[in-house]
Amino acid sequence: MFVWRKEIDRLDIPANHVLRLYRSLNVIQVALPGLSAQEATVYLGAFKQEKGILIAAIFHFQADRKLVFYLYQDGSVGKKEATRVLEEGIVFAESMGFMLSDMDYQLLSSDEQEALWESLPLRLGAAEPAAAATGTVPPVTRTEPPKPDRSSESSKVSSGTSPQLAERCRSLVENYGRFLASF
Fold it and tell me: How many beta carbons lie within 10 A of that of residue 77, not counting itself?
C-alpha cells in the first residue's frame, strides 16, 4: 500500500540513483484532501538508497506546480521485493485512471539519464525557480535509442539471446491488456 507523505515536497536524488521510472501518458483530474482539484500527471519510480530501494508514486499537480508524494508503506525494500512493490505502484496509479509508460530510464546512457532527470519536475520540486520566474518551461529533449535491426529481432526473442527485448515485449503485451481492459 502507498501512503501520502505530506512532509515531502521534493526529491533530492541524483540521476544515477534512479533505477526505474514510469510516467503517465494521460492527465487526470485529481482531488486530494486539502488541495484543490486539478489536472495531474503521475510518475512512478524506484530510487536507490543506503538502506535499499525506495518506490514512490509522485503526482505533479499542474496548475499549482506542486508535487505530492506517495511512498510504499514499509519504506525502502530489497531488490527481490522491489519488482513486486513497483507492480503494486503501477496498479495504484492505474486504479486512479492513469496509463503508465516505462520511460526506459535504465537503458539510457549516463549523460542521457542526467539530461532527462534534470528536465523533469521531480528532482528539486515542481516549481523550478527559472521556469516560475519567467513563466516559461525549458524544452524537454529526449534522444531516441538506436533502432534495432528488425531482420534478426524475431530470432532473438525465440532463441532467448535478448532477455531485455523479450521482457519489453512481455511488458508491452501486459500493459496493452490493461489499456484495453479500462474501456
Answer: 19
pLDDT in tens, 77-102: 998 899 999 999 999 999 999 999 99
Cell numbers representing residue 130 in the block: 527559472
- Distance set, CA 146 to CA 108, 114, 116, 127, 174 (Å): 11, 18, 17, 33, 24
User: What tens digit of pLDDT does each residue of 120-162 get?
Assistant: 988 666 554 333 333 333 333 334 444 444 444 444 444 444 6
If you write DSSP's letter for every residue of 47-81 in order, what string do you get? Answer: EEETTEEEEEEEEEETTTTEEEEEEETT-SB-HHH
Q: Where are the domains of the chain?
A: 2-146, 149-183
Any residues with CB less than 8 A from the CB of 105 and at least 6 apart, and which? 18, 19, 20, 21, 113, 116
